[in-house]
Amino acid sequence: MILVTGGAGYIGSHNVIALIESGYDVVIFDNLELGHLETVETLKSIQTKGKVVDFIKGDLQNFEDINSVFKTHKIDAVIHFAAYSQVGESVKNPQKYYFNNVYGTLNLLRAMLENNVKKIVFSSTAATYGEPVYVPIDEKHPQNPINTYGKTKLMIESILDDYDKAYGLKSVRLRYFNVAGADSLNRVGEWHEPETHLIPNVLKSTFGGGKKFQMFGTDYDTKDGTCVRDYINIEDLAKAHILALGYLEQGGETNYFNLGTTEGNSVKEVFSTCEEVTEREIPVDVMARREGDPATLIAQNTKAKEILGWIPEKSLKDSIKTAYAWECKLNK
Ligand code: UDP
Q1: Distance CA 314, CA 156 (A)
Q2: Percentage of the chain with pLDDT > 90?
Q3: Most buried pick, 13, 29, 84, 112, via CB within 10 A?
Q4: How far apart are CA 149 and CA 30, in angstroms?
């Protein structure tokens, strides 16, 4: 059985579906602060062929909460998503991030060691690289995060190295670029309150009463003046986690991989693709730059392709189509 922390959240829930569809039993651990009970109910309703999808409500900052999951379930490996992930908030309130992300992970790892579970797939981020020295960014790029969120994820990567050396705990760290889209059957999708991400914010402003879309910065040194990002589809991303799990199950050593497409799209390109998909003219306000946004972030993904056999298949437009279907459902 696979323990999925943060399984009621955006990335976690799509991974639970991928696990179910790959034939795994799953136990979701989530405190439902940012995850949704409705999501858990949806996930439980799609369990198939005698497979188990269990849910335990608990907080990683409480060791007993997480330790008890290992006592009541036979866990073979962990996929760890539970974390705060808002860059701006992390800079304003670092304590909140260090306690939840770092201390929470330390509790999880302690519970894993006490219960002799030694495989973990960890949700890391391109934010661990900081301001790019070169693009596309490969895994050898220096890791110098420029915000607390990225620092918490890098600290955890470093802790995982130490725990492998000392305790033989094997990890795969997946460094996500910009995750986009929703489940193609529209069962789950991106559901943050408040929403800070580009694609859902553009799409939200197509609904009556929705706010005008705010475009942060048009004076960057890029093809059209807006920031360029590498948008990786959520279902492609989930597939990489299944491959990473298989890699660990086959005795793979601790490793780390970028998850991105190698293609860069500007904010303006994303915006116009949203207009195309929704067949609407979307209201926009051009704003000043948002603090802490690097001009360009694009992944090199050769390592994940070669070692994990991962092939991302979906385009930006595919992601925007499923994200829009999901937004329509949320706004019904
Ligand atoms: N962005 C924007 N308006 C929004 C949200 C985001 O212009 O309402 C821009 C943001 O400044 C960045 C890009 O879209 O250049 C991607 O931002 P997002 O928050 O989606 O992801 P990040 O790159 O910060 O992880």
Answers
A1: 30
A2: 94
A3: 13
A4: 19
- Encoding tokens for residue 326? 């999901």
Which one of 230, 293, 320 would you pick to mutate in the ligand 1 pocket, going by the greatest count of ligand atoms within 8 A of its CB? 293
pLDDT per position as a tens digit, 104-132 = 999 999 999 999 999 999 999 999 999 99
Q: Is 325 helix (H, G, I), strand (E, B) or coil?
A: helix
Tens digits of residue pLDDT in 293-312: 899 999 999 999 999 999 99
Catalytic residue among 149, 163, 176, 220: 149
149 assigned to active site:
yes
The more confidently predicted of residues 48 and 159 is 159
Short-list 8, 95, 13, CA closest to 59: 8
Cβ 72 vs Cβ 122: under 8 Å: no
Residues with CB under 6 A from ligand 1: 87, 178, 196-198, 201, 214-216, 227, 229, 267, 290, 293
- Tell me the CA distances in angstroms from 126 to 34, 136, 151, 181, 300, one per residue in order: 22, 11, 11, 18, 11
